[in-house]
Amino acid sequence: MNVNAKTPVLWGVGGAVLASACCVAPVVMALLGIGSAAFLVAWLSLRPLFLAVAALFLIGGLVLMGRRAACARTPSMRRLWMAPLIMAICFLGGYNLLNSVVAPRLYQPLVARDQRAITAGGVVIGAAGQIVPLRQANIHVYMNCSGCAATLRLKLLGLHGVHAASVDWQHGVAQILYDPTRTTARGLIASIPNQWYYAPRMQGMQSLSNATLAAATQVQTPQVAAAGTALIVIVGLFVLTGDAARRRRGGLGLHWA
To answer: What is the domain range of residue 191?
Structure first.
């Protein structure tokens, strides 16, 4: 029985999609105007679960390909070693493409639209009938994916007195247009989760630099991509080693077609 050449590609891309779901899905939901801030915050908190499922998916793919190919009588070592390599390349390329290209490009129109709304400004009628100009607050934020930015944007838009909000994660700035008669800049800052704010309200972490704190509280895309690739290579080597042992015992070998 031969393993189709497309199989490693499908397993690698599937693992990339699962590992990227926590970051790409919030951007898609923001574009479609669905989902609440509470739902997206809860979704992001499941990132370890998505990564674990992706890891199990990749391991399962390698094991299943090995079992399906174990009955091949004609070994092809070149194709045998190429299968995990192709799978690793597809995972690495797919994960980086989704997180570094697709999601940011999908999110960019939201940023441009929100910034136009903030620049336009506006006025509200106060309690005494007076005209009150809306105020703008610029807050330093840090995050390394558009999924976090989309979630924070929706959270800010849901706050009392906020008329418009823009979160530019690439430049580390959140801009908020708010009604000063209903809220304050300090109140808006207090609503931002600790892990997304430059000056976190966490005891013992005030002395850390912004970059150090970001690295300590965020899982970097390159780290996830490297971990997934290493996982595929290690499990692939394990499968290949097991096949070599079986070949020595019974003359059977894997044949990746």
So the answer is: 7-250
